[in-house]
Amino acid sequence: xxxxxxxxxxxAGVSLATASRVLNGSSRTPAADIAERVKSAAEELGYVANAxxxxxxxSTTGLVGLVVHDIADPYFSAIAHGVQQAALQTRxxxxxxxxxxxxxxxxxxxxxAAVNAFISYRTxxxxxxxxxxxxxxxxxxxxxxxxINNGGRVVTxxxxxxxxxxxxTVANREGATALVAALVAQGIKRFVILAGPHERNTARVxxxxxxxxxxxxNLEPLAxxxxxxTSKGGYxxxxxxxxxxxxxxxxxxxxxxxxxxxxxxxxxxxVIALGAMTALRSRELSIPTDIQVAGFDxxxxxxxxxxxxxxxxLPLEDMGKLxxxxxxxxxxxxxxxxTGTVVLRESAGHQ
Amino acid sequence: xxxxxxxxxxxAGVSLATASRVLNGSSRTPAADIAERVKSAAEELGYVANAxxxxxxxSTTGLVGLVVHDIADPYFSAIAHGVQQAALQTRxxxxxxxxxxxxxxxxxxxxxAAVNAFISYRTxxxxxxxxxxxxxxxxxxxxxxxxINNGGRVVTxxxxxxxxxxxxTVANREGATALVAALVAQGIKRFVILAGPHERNTARVxxxxxxxxxxxxNLEPLAxxxxxxTSKGGYxxxxxxxxxxxxxxxxxxxxxxxxxxxxxxxxxxxVIALGAMTALRSRELSIPTDIQVAGFDxxxxxxxxxxxxxxxxLPLEDMGKLxxxxxxxxxxxxxxxxTGTVVLRESAGHQ
DNA sequence: CATATATTGGAAAGCGCTTTCCTAACGACT
DNA sequence: AGTCGTTAGGAAAGCGCTTTCCAATATATG
Lengths: 351, 351
Known about the structure:
2 copies of one chain form a homodimer.
Chain A: H1 5-12, H2 16-23, H3 32-45, H4 51-58, E1 63-68, H5 74-89, E2 93-98, H6 109-120, E3 125-128, H7 138-149, E4 153-157, E5 166-170, H8 172-185, E6 191-196, H9 201-216, E7 223-226, H10 231-244, H11 248-255, E8 263-267, H12 270-282, E9 291-294, E10 311-313, H13 316-328, E11 335-338, E12 341-343
Parallel strand pairs in A: 1-2, 1-3, 3-4, 4-5, 5-11, 6-7, 6-8, 8-9
Antiparallel strand pairs in A: 10-12
Chain A binds a DNA duplex through helix 2 and helix 4.
């Protein structure tokens, strides 16, 4: 029912071809007076080009698909924000899917479903930012390779099992190691790791980085506790750990050995660390004197937190921007990488 | 270059029409053996329907457009999350746009640009969640009415200047009033309002609600300070207010009059409140003994904050879900409303 | 002034689907 | 056996654009 190009053409007294050339960037530009007539006709009728039809005719859609795990998670929303910025540069619209929200089918299928939807809409590119699962679905890999062979571009945040995809490497491992090293340099010797779910790639790699950092200092973690990749996951894991220590007095005697600096909790991300801090507070353990905490990501919203969270800062928005640039520019590099910086703050005893 | 339906049909030895009927929900279902042949041909060739072509033929796209202000803001990302959930139910894909990110053109044009893009893609519906500007762009209203007349559905969060749009009313005003009433009931008498930017509708309405609540208690705010709708905005506004009070001793004598309970800062949203708390902490004012703070929204990430923030809880995800349902179900009600609840916590002296 | 060369607008052929309309086949019924 | 009502597959006409190819006109060249 919307007005179509043929009506505009008729209204302006020109052919379809001419109207098309005037209104949509063509290599051929009709004469100025004709162009003017067409433009005002379009304006007058309130013409808006049908992008679907254009996509069909041009065989390029101006769409970019972004799949995240949970858009409500500040980690992903920051990335999404970066993607939007880059998408605007190339006048792309972003199609968003979240793998945390499952319809029918198994939870693991959400990513496949999202990717298939994007492929169906013939997005020019797909950005996979959902922290990938460990055992990648072969159907996903197959669908994506086919998509790439058909001219689609795929970029993944972190390594993936799709050989043809462009990958934006994130210094999760190195960052985790660097964070531990910085903490060790502060005199901390005893660590507990809140590892998140072990099937999540990102979490696993960070934990490996933590362990590697510890090993380099000839240290071993007091414990490695798994849990959900959420605030509640951090809370529960912390409670679990504290309970394993006995009652409060016993716990304190372990955590705060006079001879050494307190135990430091290494969380696989900031949100987990946040949950951990809440748990500690509820046990009336004070940070950083009784126990210390470090996170990962440096989520913007948490920068106002008190005590300020020691963490490894990842340039989340830039990651999104970079990924989108790699995805949207056909000539972009096939791979890129981002690193972050250790940010020492109060939660780990920094003044 | 992707495989198309005609190839599948040929591979299965049937006509285009039959293949279409088998693979895409048609009212007519071909015989079982034929269907099987088509399906396995599709599977074998890795056929994925071209949604653009389907959209063109069916004149419905399966797309829903969501325009937010800043997807990195937890308020909007929570809403987006809700929208995603509802969109999955109707198998819609969500197209996301943010008005905080501006290309060329004036910043105010971002919303118009987003809406025009969505109209161009012929989204089945558009959800306007960006906290609307006070002076709505007439071009926006025009574009949207035309869109609605052409069969599109529009739902706005909060009132809008588009008479044909469905509106999901949010109890910003009532919530703000209720929050103040609850605070007054706690014995608080002196309030400072951090109003956010005055051109933002949401902020303005909330401030009106605050003022209304105060008036009902025969009170007036000590001050109303405007600023950005961000953490930094809250920080700056708070610093500005504190500076107006003189040095720390003078400030303290004002804030914490022995005869009365401390001054309470009413922020137009949680993020502003967060910034305010950071500012207070940097001035070594303790919450809630020296000064108190209340926010608005009850952002999930902030629930782990200490001191816990008194606020008005809005069911953000549900709002998104509801808005999307109103948008996606043609037969849905033309309007709906959501209210929240006052949540008294430590930051305003609640035990 | 005639011919070769750009330019410019228009007709029409797709782009990959859906869906109406048609025809053929089949079974049921008298 | 003949007729009618069903059902099922296929041909073809769009959906709203872009773009190639043509024809016609305008410009440049000898």
